[in-house]
Amino acid sequence: MDITELKELMRLLEESTLSELEIEEDNRRVRLSKAVQAAYAPPMQQFAPPAAASAAAPAAPAAAPDDAEEAWAHVIESPMVGTFYSSPGPGEPPFVQAGARVSTDTTVCIIEAMKIMNEVAAKEDCIIERVLVESGQPVEFGQPLFAIRPTS
Amino acid sequence: MDITELKELMRLLEESTLSELEIEEDNRRVRLSKAVQAAYAPPMQQFAPPAAASAAAPAAPAAAPDDAEEAWAHVIESPMVGTFYSSPGPGEPPFVQAGARVSTDTTVCIIEAMKIMNEVAAKEDCIIERVLVESGQPVEFGQPLFAIRPTS
Amino acid sequence: MPGMFRRILIANRGEIAVRVIRACRAMGITTIAVYSTADRDCLHAQLADESICIGPPSPTESYLNIPRIISAAEITDAQAIHPGYGFLSENAKFANICRDCHIEFIGPSSKAISLSGDKSACRQAVKAAGVPIVPGSDGLITDPAEAIRIGESMGFPVLVKAAAGGGGKGMRIAHNDAALKNAVKMAAQEAEAAFGDGGVYLEKFLENARHIEVQIMADNQGRVVAFGERECSIQRRHQKLIEETPSVALTNSMRAKLCKAAVRAAKAIGYTNAGTVEFLLAPDGYFYFIEFNARIQVEHPVTEEVTGFDLIREQIRIAAGESLGYSAVKPQGHAIEARLYAEDPEHNFRPCPGKIGKLHLPGGIGIRVDSHLYPGYVVPRYYDSMLAKIIARGRNREEAIDRLANALDEVYTDQIVTTAALCAKVVRGDRFRRGDLGPDLLAEYLPKTSV
Amino acid sequence: MPGMFRRILIANRGEIAVRVIRACRAMGITTIAVYSTADRDCLHAQLADESICIGPPSPTESYLNIPRIISAAEITDAQAIHPGYGFLSENAKFANICRDCHIEFIGPSSKAISLSGDKSACRQAVKAAGVPIVPGSDGLITDPAEAIRIGESMGFPVLVKAAAGGGGKGMRIAHNDAALKNAVKMAAQEAEAAFGDGGVYLEKFLENARHIEVQIMADNQGRVVAFGERECSIQRRHQKLIEETPSVALTNSMRAKLCKAAVRAAKAIGYTNAGTVEFLLAPDGYFYFIEFNARIQVEHPVTEEVTGFDLIREQIRIAAGESLGYSAVKPQGHAIEARLYAEDPEHNFRPCPGKIGKLHLPGGIGIRVDSHLYPGYVVPRYYDSMLAKIIARGRNREEAIDRLANALDEVYTDQIVTTAALCAKVVRGDRFRRGDLGPDLLAEYLPKTSV
After folding, report:
1. Residue C295: active-site member
2. Is D394 buried (19+), middle (13-18) or exposed (0-12) by CB count in 10 A?
């Protein structure tokens, strides 16, 4: 076993958020694992939601993204905090729908922030696989708006 | 297995934040692991000694045992808190010395607690390898008094 | 007068040991912790200037073992021992032995401990000083017929109590002659088994009475000062869960009378150092002495928060022969304490020892935390399951309640269930806010099977 | 009057965001936290009822970005924004935009913010109200010759200060004509670069003067109340490290005069909400106004500890249109705050961001901890390195010092170096105990290279 190569593997695992790495090739197998880090739960779950407060509060706009991020490999994220609109105006057809093929100059939605309508374009050539947010829904920075499949 | 190589692997794992390392090649398999518990430093070192207080305080009687416990595989421990005496009285020869062969009815020392002299006997047949405590020194419960080599 | 101590040994563990260590350090006194092998990693053993292992986990071989503790004090050259609460704190023999060994016991004289420990004799001494006591027998009951005569004369229901009792053991309630006859026998047997002393006495059972206690401090120069009252009506299994001061049940003139009675009771039994006088407050506003606690109590911080005094410091000063130097204290504001036990309220307060992983305790304005917890601490199964006391201070009761409820919400103890959420629900509830603290309050927040 | 807010957005991070969240929760107000992607795991984002990501780590794209914060407030239906300290807290434009968007800004009017931000104009307004100011120029200096004329008339040394300044930037000291001529030019350039505003003015440099500030609260009905003073003389790199109240340098009659002057200054600039009036106290006992801070300050807890008031609650009440309801407060006891920064005092206060493993923060009697730390928290490198404030309260200064020193000893932050040990050494030292808090005090405890 080459120590330099092993070191590189160990460093890779350490720096990642993964907990195990196993390689098997020819007649050699290497398995690395990280237990300690896994003992820490994702911090957002560290504090139980205060019962009284959360009962009184309306649904947070920030509830969705964590799940969504897991589920989709490629997404278009919201570049800002604001309200998501799928079409240029009420009653008008949406900019894009699932299955649409878009390029970097295609407007895919509008984010309204402080009464200003900000057009959001795709970051790469891709196919829209799914619209993840309802029109009129508030979104936060970095929240996935569309699941996509890159075409370039 | 080359010991030098193994040592290198062990050091690598120790210095990393990983908890397991497993290598299998040809007809050889090496698996190293680090207990999750080991991620926590020994708690007695968790708190820096308060500078002002420790400067003022005399040497704690409990300072020695931790090191001693590591160093010796077999020991006779103090069964109580008190003052260790190696001989029955001042100026008299000690009960035992390094090299002495003792049995379960041999008195090896006295622990004085609340003005009462408590005779301490060996727990098993053994040879005294080293006396770990000076006569007249305070000892705590469980503190190693003698390093021994069992003979039975 | 020996002058102030330079070295104090703390004959206790957990949060109260940490509490005493902090008080000593603020006074420049070197602290010596004792610990059992189960407590090697406990915070008190880490915070003290010196720590000494005294025995295996079993309390009788460590924290309750007088020779081992005295021996530890001798080899570490301690000039005084603080017993905390529980363990040896109300053991008259221990107090005696300490002083025989020229080690000051930070607490009352062994004579005063003995007298407060004999509940029946203490009642008589306090009654003789003119403090109202709950109607009952003049001393121990030896004959069931005598019990019935007394029971009928003062009216049922009647409480049978063990003279050496505590924690609800050897205590029985009787609603009629036949039940009383039985209760006397059963209580005596229980008391004999639990305390090695089968002496029992009678008290009238006061319905809907509130438990109110007065903190007193008495110096060796004969001055006794009352530090106001605490109300401790919210209990689980006869153990307190939430305590507060002042009590909503008292008017200022009632409070003044109660404090005066407490001082008189302390003087009647020749008490010195910190003590608590327990009273029952009947719905008609009359109050009756029930017993004397000869120790610092778990809930002492609420009194500290409204008076500004460090009661442990006062205990040490008194033990060193200093006089109090004041004759009255003026509490201000309101304070409430909630106790965090490693117990599951949903399952009949089942103890939950084990390792605490991640940990978050609250902080900020008006919040005091007394605790021996740290992340990674393993709660041992050998001792009391109390982990922390969260104390909230406010300018008024509302503010203290709001702060306490929110602080309790913040508590996060990974892998261990505590009473934090239950306490939060209770103090946030309407009944607690109204000050309606009857003994049935807690049951409203528990599954039916847990009550 | 709009009535009390039901939903407040906190436009800040870290300990002050946690502080505001706790105050809101105790008032029954729903809290909305904003956070940058570097602060996903920060305690404020976890404690708030709702949390919303507003941008990448860079402050200009998150906590300093007005459109993003306003947009976050709009989509979460917040009725008011608390700006904390730093970031947008003294940004008059932000206060204006909030109100234009029908969101209450919890702080003074944008006019009052502008006036306190223009240090030279503020001086004139306060002087006109009869409050003594440090001798200096009547307004901005445009001509070096004018500077020299003023410098000669009031005597050297002279301080050149930026009108828009803060944190020591654009500030120069001159001991003679030639140096002053240079200093004016240099300071103007520095100020232009740092604040986009090259306006400078002159002040006489008072040697051995102490920095003393007065906390004031002003409601919208015209009532201004002084909450006593704070002394903040122990600083590193013009940033405060240890603060206390009351100041040992003031007699009661001086204190009364100072508080009166502070109230007059606040009224002179039409101030509302929480503010701090800074004074220099010369060795001869005379005091001089220097500037007005239009925000809640880091060190506000020491004032809370001696007055019993929750100043954040008072800020919120005032913003909601409530009147203060009292005309004076009576501080009691003594409080001292030490700031824990993730910095290494042994190496020139080099910042030490990174992951905190094990963590122990102190507790017990008289100790308040305001912090966003929890075990495992990663201190990001993008923001201020303050981790926690440890505040000790005592009946007197001695008691507060002893408690603070011991609490600081207890601090344990695994893997991260903090200023805790340095602060412990300072408060335990003879000079601090004597109250001799000159600007050179800190240097005594630092390696020569770090000063």
Report:
1. yes
2. buried
Would you tell me which residues 72-111 of chain B have a C-beta closer than 8 angstroms to some C-beta of chain C? Answer: 80-83
Residue D31's domain spans which residues?
7-106
> Is the same domain home to C31 and C163?
no
Nearest to A29 among B9, B12, B24 (CB): B24
> Does C238 share its domain with C347?
yes
- Residue A46: which of C358, C409, C424 has the nearest Cβ? C358
Kindly determine whether residue A14 and residue B17, on different chains, have CB atoms separated by under 8 Å.
yes
Q: Does the B70-150 domain belong in CATH 2.40.50.100?
A: yes
For chain D, percent of residues with pLDDT exceeding 70: 98
Alpha-carbon gap, residue A145 to B146, rounded angstroms: 72
Q: Which residue of C has its CA nearest to B55?
A: C49
Distance from CA of A84 to the nearest CA of D (A): 10
DSSP C38: G
Query: Half-sphere exposure of A2 toward its Cβ, with a 13 Å CA cutoff?
Result: 4
Over residues C412-431, the pLDDT tens digits come to: 998 899 999 999 999 999 99
Residue of C13, C172, C295, C368 marked catalytic: C295
Q: Per the structure block, which two tokens stand in for C402?
A: 């709001």
pLDDT for the residue numbered A105: 87
- Do the interacting molecules here have an ipTM over 0.90? no
- How many whole angstroms separate alpha carbon C292 and alpha carbon C269? 10
What is the number of domains present in chain C?
3
How much is the pLDDT for A1? Answer: 62
Q: Does any CB of chain D come closer than 8 Å to the CB of residue B114? A: no
What is the number of other CB atoms lying within 10 angstroms of the CB of residue B40?
A: 17
Q: Per the CB < 8 Å rule, is C365 touching D304? A: yes
Q: Which residues of chain C does A43 touch, with a Cβ-Cβ cutoff of 8 Å? A: none
Please give the full DSSP string across A77-137, using - where no structure is assigned.
EPSSSEEEESSSSTTSPPS--TT-EE-TT-EEEEEEETTEEEEEE-SSSEEEEEE-S-TT-
Of C337, C373, C339, the closest CA to residue C358 belongs to: C373
